[in-house]
Design a protein that fits this description.
The chain is of the alpha/beta class. The chain is built from five helices and five strands. α2 packs across α5 and α3 runs parallel beside α4. The radius of gyration is 24 Å and the shape is elongated.
């Protein structure tokens, strides 16, 4: 009977060991597959990340433009028959007027209906004012977070 108890205890300990190892491996591999925080991304990675978010939100014909000579536009997309020219800014501080000007010029260059700036930050007061006058959509950190939650 005592031998039987030892075998049961050994089996329970082995099961616990394998469960702990499985949990550890799950956590390790899950973290290694998790993308960088958006605030740590390089510009090009951020553009592709944003393009994927837009696709998940029903945008079609989503295209990341070439890296240079893109006339200030990083993503071209369409949703519900409306065409968009989107400038992406992954910054460590608020986004200023220059990004609004780039979206405005790029919208016209690509002959799109709507220009937008998508950022991981917020916008300066002058940028908000310029966007109102130039009719550029501002998609700030709050909007980006809401898109990520819907993912």
């Amino acid at each position: 009977m005592q031998e039987y108890s030892r075998i049961i205890i050994l089996c329970v300990m082995l099961i616990i060991f394998f469960v702990l190892i499985s949990i550890f491996l799950y956590i390790f591999f899950r973290k290694s597959r998790t993308p960088k925080s958006i605030d740590e991304m390089e510009g090009r990675d951020f553009e592709h990340f944003c393009a994927d978010l837009l696709k998940n939100r029903g945008f079609v014909d989503v295209e990341v433009t070439k890296e240079s000579g893109d006339y200030g536009i990083d993503i071209l997309a369409e949703k519900d028959g409306v065409t968009y020219a989107i400038q992406c800014k992954c910054y460590g501080s608020p986004v200023g007027v220059k990004a609004i000007q780039e979206a405005y010029a790029g919208r016209d260059y690509y002959d799109r209906m709507v220009g937008a700036v998508l950022t991981n930050q917020y916008f300066t007061a002058p940028a908000v004012e310029a966007a109102k006058k130039l009719k550029i959509l501002l998609w700030d950190r709050g909007y980006l977070d809401s898109m990520m939650q819907e993912k």
